[in-house]
Write a sequence for this structure.
């Protein structure tokens, strides 16, 4: 199975800040990577797929990059609604696996 | 309205089975694979498998083979996930998620609201 490791596990930031979350795959996954965020009590929501393609309707302050084993999600100009838990997901091979999550908290 | 609506919360005893439904609306039900993902309390996301609504084909994560069954009823555009021989560590929120293909990738662009399954004696 492909292991997905996110860092940091949690991060504190303020409204207006820029935050970067990283995700590392245990083997190469090309660009078969998606990012989701999840608020308490809600289902995950797709932000980015193909490592860098913004899902329709997602604000442009979200961006993704990377290929192979190392990926990043950057959120610029943090807004109050961005405080949530973020997950990366690989769909290169089965079983599909997720990172353990990064909790983004308000400082 | 494009949405997935899941059945309500369940409380089951150890050893019992649970069947969760996922009603799709607003899009072509047979045009998208349906995946199931679960999340134990305070934990991350765990993929369970997929079902092809077009022909009923399935692919289960090895962990769940032999005790999960994913089916569908195309006449009512509903997918089902049944988990048998429940144990306390099956207490979780269970989500259905629609797969969409794009840009030589696939991803989960539509999720149900989740179904809480509690296993307790």
């Amino acid at each position: 199975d492909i292991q997905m490791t996110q860092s940091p596990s949690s991060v504190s930031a303020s409204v207006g800040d820029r935050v970067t979350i990283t995700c590392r795959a245990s083997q190469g996954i090309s660009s078969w990577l998606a990012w989701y965020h999840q608020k308490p009590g809600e289902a995950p929501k797709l932000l980015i797929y193909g490592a860098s393609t913004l899902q329709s309707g997602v604000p442009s302050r979200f961006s993704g990059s990377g290929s192979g084993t190392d990926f990043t999600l950057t959120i610029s100009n943090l807004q109050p609604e961005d405080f949530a838990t973020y997950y990366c997901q690989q769909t290169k091979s089965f079983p599909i696996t997720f990172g353990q999550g990064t909790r983004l908290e308000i400082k | 309205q494009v949405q997935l609506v899941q059945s309500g919360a369940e409380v089951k005893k150890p050893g019992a089975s649970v069947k969760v439904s996922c009603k799709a609306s607003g899009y072509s039900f047979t045009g998208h694979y349906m995946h199931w993902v679960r999340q134990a309390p305070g934990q991350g996301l765990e993929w369970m498998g997929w079902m092809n609504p077009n022909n009923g084909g399935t692919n289960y994560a090895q962990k769940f083979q032999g005790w999960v069954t994913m089916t569908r009823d195309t006449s009512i555009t509903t997918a089902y996930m049944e988990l048998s021989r429940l144990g306390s560590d099956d207490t979780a929120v269970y989500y259905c998620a629609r797969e969409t293909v794009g840009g030589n990738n696939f991803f989960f662009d539509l999720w149900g609201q989740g179904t809480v399954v509690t296993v307790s004696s």
User: Anything to note?
Assistant: Chain A is about 0% helix and 50% strand.
